[in-house]
Amino acid sequence: MEDxxxxxxxRALAFGTPILLAGLGEIYAERSGVVNLGVxxxxxxxxLAAFATAQTSGSPALGLLAAxxxxxxxxxxxxxxxxxxRANQYVAGLALSMLGLGLxxxxxxxxxxxxxxxxxxxxxxxxxxxxxALALWFFLQHTYWxxxxxxxxxxxxxxxxxxxxxxxxxxxxxAFGGAMAGLxxxxxxxxxxxxxxDGITSGLxxxxxxxxxxxxxxxxxxxxxxxxxGALYHLxxxxxxxxxxxxxxxxxxxxxVLVLSLSALGRGPSGAPEALGTPYERGERR
Length: 286
Hints:
The protein has helices at about 1-30, 40-55, 60-85, 90-105, 120-140, 145-155, 155-160, 165-190, 205-215, 220-240, 245-265. The protein is about 75% helix and about 0% strand. The protein is mostly helical.
């Protein structure tokens, strides 16, 4: 019994790691006031960039850097539209998600079935994700720039009055969120299942978006929430003989729909930044 529980915990941590990494990035973007629904697309681009670079160069470390760069660049393109041009953040995010998935699927065809001689240890990603959650919580709650980031999502006019450029803060937060999504994608293609296949993200990016809400935009709560989602994934494999597999596999997504529905009705987790999803224009009063 103890062995089963220990194994279940380890698998839940592994399943939850990409959700936590991408979710932490989304929390930072949203705490700055920007909703980026393009996480799924950025994860796919990160996974492809990581695998393609590692497979051609023989260096998974270079693959990891490529994933961070590719996803951060995609996030910056989104930021140009949503922050710089004040486009609808939800529409721009959906466009990024579809573009990222389509581009990754197209460019990744030559790498399907390709071998990967060197991989990265899964345990290092798991431990790193948990440490990142702790470090990002400390940065957000106990540093000056963490205060600036939170203020950009709560009261951007006050940040502007402090002489800090709100647009740069939001650009930086969105780019960081993209890099974290890329890191989540790299975990999938370099450690968890060292390979490339179209659809490798399997909807995990959407769960990461819901994770930010479920965790009340709090990095430490995000770690617990990711473990919960990871446990649901593990459960879907452990109970296939007793319960309809399709229902079990749908459990994480059904929970996401529930969280988002409750949030839309104002009954979900509280703590959303006041200016979340609202473009900022200098001199404008909300």
